[in-house]
Amino acid sequence: MTMIYKTQKPDLAKRTVPPSMVSSGVVIALRPRQRLGLARGSEQVFVVRSGMVYLEAMPQATSRQILDLYYPGDVIKEQSIPQIPGANLIAVQTGEVVRLNAQRLQALVEGDPDARRFLDNAMAHQYPRRLAHLAMLGALTGEERVASLLMELALRVGEAGPDRARTFDIPLSRTEMADYLSLNADTLSRIMSKLRQTGVLGATGRGRGYAPHFDALCRITPLAETITALHVNRPA
Length: 236
Description:
Blueprint: H1 19-23, E1 26-30, E2 35-36, E3 44-50, E4 53-60, E5 63-70, E6 75-77, E7 88-91, E8 95-101, H2 102-111, H3 113-139, H4 142-157, E9 158-160, E10 166-169, H5 174-181, H6 185-197, E11 208-211, H7 214-218, H8 224-231
Antiparallel strand pairs: 1-8, 2-7, 3-6, 3-8, 4-5, 4-7, 9-10, 10-11
């Protein structure tokens, strides 16, 4: 049986931060690789308006792990981040976040149905994504992990082309991708080379990906249907 994966562009309007939430907080313009300060016991909340942010940790001084990726519309509660050594929020690219106090956010959502709906929707969809990522790290091969991430990026920040091709940004560096997928950077490079040699990925410029036949990329990962459900047209 041939599986066809829908590749329509995610509905960005459903991830637009409500104006009341923006006006209640502080808008921070982000530079690539800028750190967002974390403080123990803090009640800060960050809402991603544009760009991408990740959560990193360094359990050991010589090893970094990227634990989570945050896209526009995602909500990051500092209280939910465990006290892991080296925990930092890092901007992947130019973008914006809204910083709010947790108590102020709670008061806002109690009186604003749109803000409540936005917050509930964001939190309800981020948790399944974390579980899917854990399943990917625990059960998939290196090639399947890489295909899973590329598929996610293609759905989140990509554009559909003719004949089911798809072009997408790859804002993460090679090292960041490896740290997110728990792979050695050299192993990641070999997998990417193989995907290009077999035609799953086509030639593009730096920081861009191109899947001439998106279904071929989807077929590599056993989590293709899960990734599609998590990253395409979230319900409002």
